Every structure is written in C-alpha cells, then in structure tokens.
C-alpha cells in the first residue's frame, strides 16, 4: 500500500505498539506502559501507541448506553470515551518522562471507518497529517477501537477493535513492527490461564492464528494483517520474545522462565524511589533485597519495601543485579566494582563514579554487565545514540547537559533570584546532593568525560575539563542578554582535533535561534556532529525522578532480558547513521 511514510529509512524505524485492557487494568498501569514505550524510543525508533480503555470501562459505558436505549451511533460516541481517556493518560505519562509526544484524536488524522457504527471497518487515514505529527514527536498516541464515520459521525470497531486499529496503522504507515502487548507472553494453543499445559508458539501463519488466538486477538485484525502483509508480534510487557504471526509454518516454542531476578537497590532518594516503584510493578520479574537508605527508621511508614542502613544486608545473598543510586564517587564505585567482580550485573545513574572510575568499572567486566544510560542526559538516550553513531565517525558533541543549571538560567531569565531558583531545583529533585556540582560545572564535566570515552575512546578526566561557574549570572544580566536577543546557557562541548580531544563547560550567551537556546526548565539538549558535518539533535528531560528512573529501569529490563536469555529484542543498532541530517 502506498504511504507517505513508506520511505524505507523512516518506516524501518517506526513501531506500532498496542496496549490492551489486559495490561491497562488501572491508572498505575500507564507507568509500565510508559516505560515500555520509552524502551523503544531510546533505541531511536519512533512509536505510534494505540491504547484500549482501562479494563472494564467499555463494558460499563455499554451498559450505560443500553440503559438509555439510544442509537448505535450515539452508543459509539459514549463507548469510545474509554479509549479517549486512556490516550490522554498515556500522553501525560509519556510527557512526564520527557518523551516528545502528541496525542491525536481520530479527526485530527482523518481516521475514518465505514459500516455498522458498532462493528465498523477502518477505511481511511490521512498519512500526510500523521507524518507531519511524527516530524515533531517521537511518540504519537491514538485511541484504539474508534474512528470517525462518514454517515454516523462516530464508530467503534467491535470487541478487540484496538488490535484492528494497530494493524491498520502498521499497514498504512509501512511500519515494520506492530506489537500487541498482552498479559501473556505469546499465542498458545489454548488460553494458558485455563489449561497450563497449552503449547506456546514462536510463529504462526494467519490461518493458524485465527484458530489459536480466539479471544486474544480480534479476528478482523488478523484478516487485515493478512490483507496488508503485516507481521503481528504478540508479547508480554517488557519481553523480548514474541509470537510472530506471518506467512510461514507454525513453530512451537516454550520460553525459559527463570523466575524473579534478585535485586539490591542502593539509595531511595529522588531517583531510587521512582525505580522502586517500577520494580514493584513487576513482582513476577524482580525480588528485592532490603533497600539501602541512611535512616531506615524514617521509612517506617513506607510499605513498599524493607529498608536497611547496612550495605551487607542490602547485598545479602549475592544479588543478580545491583542498582546503585546513592550519589558520590569513590564509595559507590568500590561497591559496584565489588558487585561486578562477584558476577552481578550493575545499573547506575552515577556519572561522578563512572567518569572517575571508568577504567576500573570496565576492567575485566563481561561486556553488557554494567549499564549507565541515565548517567548522561537523564531520560535523553544520548549514550545509546553516541554508541550507535560512533561508526559514522563522530567529530563533536555539544549540549545543555545539566538540568539544574538550565533550570536556574531559565528562572533567572524570568526574573527569579539565583537562590530561589536553586532551592526550587533542589525541591524538584534535579540538583545533586551538593548542588555546587551543578552550579560550578562539575556535573556537566563528569557527563562530558563519559561522552568523550563513549564517542572517541579517549580518557579525559573531568578535572582536566575547564569549567565556568553559573554564579556570575543574575536576573539583571539575563534580562540585558534577552534585550539583545540572547539567552544564557551552560554548554558542554567536546571535539576531536588532530587525534586530541578538546573539551569545556562554559556559561555563555547564544542567539535565541541557536539549537540549544530553546531548552526549557530541566531539559537537556545534545547536538552530535559527524566528520561530514551531519548532525543529530536529541531533546528531553535531563533530570528529575521520572525521566531518570525510566532510563534506569530501561537498563534494568535490558539486564533482566539478558539474564533470563530473553534477548530477542531490538538493540541499540536501531539508531543508524542515516539518523544524521546534513547541515
Ligand atoms: N536527580 C536526578 O535528576 C538525577 C540523578 N542522577 C544520579 O542518580 C544518583 C542518585 O541521585 P538522586 O536520587 O537525585 O539523589 P538523592 O540524594 O535524592 O538520593 C540518594 C539517596 O541515597 C542515600 N545515600 C547516600 N549515601 C548513602 C549510604 N552510604 N548509605 C545509605 N544511603 C545513602 C541518600 O540519603 C539519599 O536518600 C546520583 O548519582 C545522581 O547523580 C542521575 C541523573 C539524574
Ligand atoms: N543534577 C543533575 C541531575 C542529572 O544528571 C542535573 O541537574 O542535570
């Protein structure tokens, strides 16, 4: 099918992901759905997210319509509200993580159906409108199950119709992946909740899928996939493996279930507390040791976990995974080295420890056992992009890479006092425990030092990077700059010149039209440039509980998949050199 999105480079980086009512059982489930979406975005994919109503809402709305006894078209108008609500909740969750997101109602993208208004078939989509929306967003959220209707104004697509919406979008956009997220890890010969001995399939053709997946996938969606040549993946939240529904022979495949991974969480502050919530959302995947905090007595009323001040208790029994979120450099680095030597995997957001102990933390460690995506950029997946674009020959990186500094400068520009702006950044959980790290540029230098390692393989300790302090900037100076069309920014820069790396953290004014000038609040921005002058810009939230915890949790889920042998998951290589734009 012809499509404005059929450009192979764009289409191969586009996923359609559908979250059904079995995984959206209550409002807190949107947190897990957001984390699942972020996992795709951070590998460089764009995603169209199709959502169902929260479980039970459609039935309740149908009962309400039935009691009133209106027309089919008015029933469709009422029943669609469950999906509209889910789309809004998903948009809010993704925005909280800093994912550039747009929620689109059917009329904004010309999504139209025909036939019975309560069991309609999708017939039209304005692909050009969708492509325009994708230009400025990494995730588009669309309510499933509903569309406009030329005759009746509104329609729903029959039970399970969100599957049909997802397949229709995949067919029309040329996306190479449509993933239906369910509460099972694939299609079984029968419902495994009823018959635990039912056989799971790795692959099924469309006819076999129609037989096996009754009650799991809407039959109209399977027929639409067959007609549109769409490969459907059916998977559980967070899983790599999926059942693929595509032309070809059926292939049974039982997954190896390893049970919960034992996790030691060290630190439960701004970031650790968010990570604890994510971990608790998956009791089937993670078993928590007592969480390391300074004062367990202050946690008496926190029912989420057991707490301890003793590192020995936190690491008791040799956990499979250590998540370090303490802050500081030497102490945490020693703990992480010990854990790696003992064979554990380690995830951290600690840039000071990684920058200062890079060699020790990478020495002897099996590759892939240490991950620190959140250490640079918070929720902006800059380390992933640098790793993937390295082969294109990166020449320089510049960016706003400290959320607190950017937040303060933004507030100064709005007339706030320096002290008030800093206090607010601390209250919001952006600042380091010692905020002079943010203000004096040490934190940005730590991040730059890590990026230099990842991009150029060169060791440049953070202490050797020149820095400028923010403290010279005031509201008056910011106002003077604004009158001249300039904006103050703290900018980290590094570039490879004649085999040597030059790097600095400066506080300077840039013209309002500069790519870094528009960074607002705690936002981070990065511009990666290759030797041919092609650039790639990355934007997102660089600090704060949820964006950072989502990045940490994405690393944790990668570790869990590797640990359990569930590695059939898209990797970092999804970000391609083609993602670089000519200047
Ligand atoms: N807050 C943010 O936006 C981001 C933070 N990070 C990094 O994540 C890490 C954690 O940051 P936050 O959660 O913001 O810090 P935080 O200060 O809010 O939390 C750290 C927690 O660990 C506890 N802690 C420290 N040393 C301890 C020890 N020896 N024993 C027991 N408890 C101890 C502290 O009491 C505190 O509750 C840091 O390395 C930070 O640089 C990275 C990206 C963003
Ligand atoms: N203090 C840091 C936290 C994230 O790395 C910042 O403000 O950027």
From TrEMBL:
Keywords: Amino-acid biosynthesis, Methionine biosynthesis, Oxidoreductase, Threonine biosynthesis. Residues 381-557 form the Homoserine dehydrogenase catalytic domain. One of its GO terms (molecular function) is homoserine dehydrogenase activity. InterPro entries: AceGlu_kinase-like_sf, Asp/Glu/Uridylate_kinase, Asp/hSer_DH_NAD-bd, HDH_cat, HDH_CS, NAD(P)-bd_dom_sf. Pfam families: AA_kinase, Homoserine_dh, NAD_binding_3. It is an enzyme of class 1 (oxidoreductase). Its EC number is 1.1.1.3. Residues 15-232 form the Aspartate/glutamate/uridylate kinase domain. Residues 267-363 form the Aspartate/homoserine dehydrogenase NAD-binding domain. One of its GO terms (biological process) is methionine biosynthetic process. Pathway: Amino-acid biosynthesis; L-methionine biosynthesis via de novo pathway; L-homoserine from L-aspartate: step 1/3; Amino-acid biosynthesis; L-methionine biosynthesis via de novo pathway; L-homoserine from L-aspartate: step 3/3; Amino-acid biosynthesis; L-threonine biosynthesis; L-threonine from L-aspartate: step 3/5; Amino-acid biosynthesis; L-threonine biosynthesis; L-threonine from L-aspartate: step 1/5. The keyword Amino-acid biosynthesis applies. The keyword Oxidoreductase applies. Belongs to the homoserine dehydrogenase family. This is Homoserine dehydrogenase. It comes from Marinicauda algicola.
């Amino acid at each position: 099918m012809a499509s404005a999105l059929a450009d192979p480079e764009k289409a191969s980086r586009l996923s359609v992901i559908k979250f059904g009512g079995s995984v959206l059982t209550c409002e807190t489930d949107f947190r897990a759905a957001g984390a699942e979406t972020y996992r795709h975005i951070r590998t460089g994919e764009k995603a169209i997210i199709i959502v169902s109503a929260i479980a039970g809402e459609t039935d309740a709305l149908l009962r309400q319509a039935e009691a009133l006894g209106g027309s089919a078209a008015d029933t469709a108008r009422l029943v669609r509200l469950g999906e509209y609500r889910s789309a809004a909740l998903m948009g809010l969750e993704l925005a909280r993580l800093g994912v550039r997101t747009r929620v689109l109602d059917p009329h904004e993208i010309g999504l139209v159906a025909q036939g019975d208004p309560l069991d309609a078939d999708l017939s039209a989509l304005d692909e050009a409108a969708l492509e325009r929306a994708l230009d400025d967003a990494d995730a588009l959220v669309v309510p499933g199950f509903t569309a406009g209707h030329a005759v009746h104004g509104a329609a729903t697509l029959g039970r399970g119709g969100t599957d049909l919406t997802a397949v229709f979008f995949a067919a029309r956009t040329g996306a190479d992946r449509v993933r239906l997220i369910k509460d099972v890890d694939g299609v079984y010969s029968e419902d495994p909740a009823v018959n635990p001995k039912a056989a799971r399939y790795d692959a099924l053709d469309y006819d076999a899928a129609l037989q096996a997946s009754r009650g799991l996938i809407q039959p109209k969606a399977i027929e639409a996939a067959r007609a549109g040549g769409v490969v459907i993946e059916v998977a559980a939240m967070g899983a790599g493996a999926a059942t693929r529904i595509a032309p070809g022979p059926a292939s049974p495949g039982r997954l190896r279930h390893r049970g919960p991974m034992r996790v030691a969480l060290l630190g439960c502050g701004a970031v650790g507390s968010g990570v604890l919530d994510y971990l608790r959302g998956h009791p089937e995947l993670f078993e928590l040791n007592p969480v390391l905090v300074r004062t367990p007595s202050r946690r008496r009323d926190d029912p989420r976990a057991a707490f301890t001040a003793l590192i020995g208790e936190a690491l008791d029994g040799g956990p499979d995974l250590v998540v370090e979120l303490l802050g500081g450099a030497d102490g945490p680095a020693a703990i992480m080295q010990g854990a790696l030597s003992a064979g554990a995997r380690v995830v951290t957001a600690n840039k000071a420890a990684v920058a200062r102990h890079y060699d020790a933390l990478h020495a002897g460690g099996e590759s892939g056992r240490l991950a620190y995506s959140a250490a640079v950029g918070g929720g902006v997946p800059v380390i992933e992009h640098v790793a993937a674009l390295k082969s294109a020959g990166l020449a320089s990186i510049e960016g706003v890479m400290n959320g607190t500094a950017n937040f303060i400068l933004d507030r100064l520009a709005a007339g706030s006092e320096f002290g008030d702006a800093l206090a607010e950044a601390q209250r919001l959980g952006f600042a380091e425990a010692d905020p002079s790290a943010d203000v004096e540029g040490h934190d940005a230098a730590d991040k730059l030092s890590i990026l230099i390692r990842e991009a150029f393989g060169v060791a440049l300790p953070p202490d050797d990077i020149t820095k400028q302090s923010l403290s010279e900037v005031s509201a008056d100076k910011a106002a003077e700059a604004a009158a001249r069309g300039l904006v103050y920014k703290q900018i980290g820069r590094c570039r490879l010149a004649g085999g040597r790396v030059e790097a600095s953290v400066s506080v300077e004014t840039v013209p309002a039209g500069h790519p870094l000038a528009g960074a607002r609040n705690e936002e981070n921005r990065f511009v990666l440039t290759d030797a041919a002058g092609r650039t790639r810009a990355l934007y997102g939230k660089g600090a704060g509980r949820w964006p950072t915890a989502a990045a940490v949790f994405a690393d944790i889920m990668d570790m869990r998949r590797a640990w359990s042998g569930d590695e059939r998951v898209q990797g970092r290589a999804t970000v391609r050199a083609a993602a670089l734009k000519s200047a």
